[in-house]
Amino acid sequence: MxxxxxxxxxxxxxxxxxxxxxxxxxxxxxxxxxxxxxALNLPIIGRIRGACDRIADGDxxxxxxxRAQVFVRPGEDVxxxxxxxxxxxxxxxxxxxxxxxxxxxSRDGHHVALLVNAGLQVDVEQISQSGAGGVGLFRTEIxxxxxxxxPSLDHQTEMYACTLEMAAGKPITFRTLDIGGDKTLPYIETxxxxxxxxxxxxxxxxxxxxxxxxxxxxxxxxxxxQTGAELSVMFPMITExxxxxxxxxxxxxxxxxxxxxxxxxxxxxxxxxxLEVPALLYQMRALLERVDFLSVGSNDLMQFLFASDRxxxxxxxxxxxxxxxxxxxxxxxxxxxxxxxxxxxxCGEMAGLPLEAMALxxxxxxxxxMASPGIGPVKEMTRSLDVGSLREYMLPLLDSPExxxxxxxxxxxxxxxxxx
Length: 420
Ligand code: PEP
Ligand code: MG
Description:
The chain has helices at residues 8-14, 32-39, 51-54, 76-97, 121-130, 140-144, 153-166, 203-208, 210-227, 241-257, 284-290, 298-305, 324-340, 354-362, 375-383, 387-394, 406-415; strands at residues 22-23, 44-45, 61-64, 69-72, 113-118, 135-139, 172-175, 231-235, 269-275, 293-296, 344-346, 367-370. The protein has 420 residues and is of the alpha/beta class.
């Protein structure tokens, strides 16, 4: 099917028609439509200019997401060679299956936790198949975007309880609604904004329309009560410590309404913030005194750090997450969290890429949350890594004037037998 535009919510609708792959004329890997496609395990390729003109409804297509190639009306030889590729991929996947029951700890004994990013119940089902330790980021808006109106308190309670039950005791960190930017809900009135990703979104909507956030928090509390699971909640796009305080107050208010103390009492509530806005980097001391944990949303943090729209394909390769500037940020955050004794997870797309994950671990990060297909390759990397040696190699490089350390990190991996 050829369509003029595609957002994350529409993709969920297309799922009903047995969608097998997505080609976009524009798009970038951290755009939400790409994230939802990965959650649905669909190959997706962006930046195929002129695709709509060249492809007609009914054309046979091969979409090779790994190599970013599209074959339009492929001949039999191409189809046959592609079948071989799929068989080789299945073999590789079988190899990763052998790692499922094994820890992700490094060769020199550093404990690394690999978690999944989820947004649909099917992702949660995949926790045990992938061998992940739990869900590091549950994007609650993805389920909610599938409904025409805001699901009622009972409906949301049922959704979250079902999700917690599916996780079978493994922890889930629920992120409260991150609406805005390219994720819209028909019943939340928004105005056209010049810069929607920096606009009225996420916790900003939550605090301005507290009824929506309070209903969600109440549902999460009830779901935890029903299932006996611990409740871990994080707030997206926190920009000032005062916003975290205000959101936490709403959480405490809903706990009180459910007859529970501020810390959740028997249901053990943890409240954290997402670090996605650079201003928060300069409020770390006050922030870390307040939060139970931090989660670095590197997709947004990098787009704001480099003033570089994550959905704009022209900018996709312009700045590198492995540049000294970006890596210094991660090093700084890891150090401050360790000093304050607060757990920190990286949950942006870079955590699921073996080379990037290697760099994050070298800088002191130990909890990585990613789309579930990333777990096998990242685990293979961590198990072949000597963290002490990598750290010694990396830290002096952080002062380098080079544009990116990607080449050096790749050479390090090759020279030291790290599987990236
Ligand atoms: C992020 O910004 O890195 C993140 C995980 O949140 P999202 O991709 O949903 O904006
Ligand atoms: Mg984000």
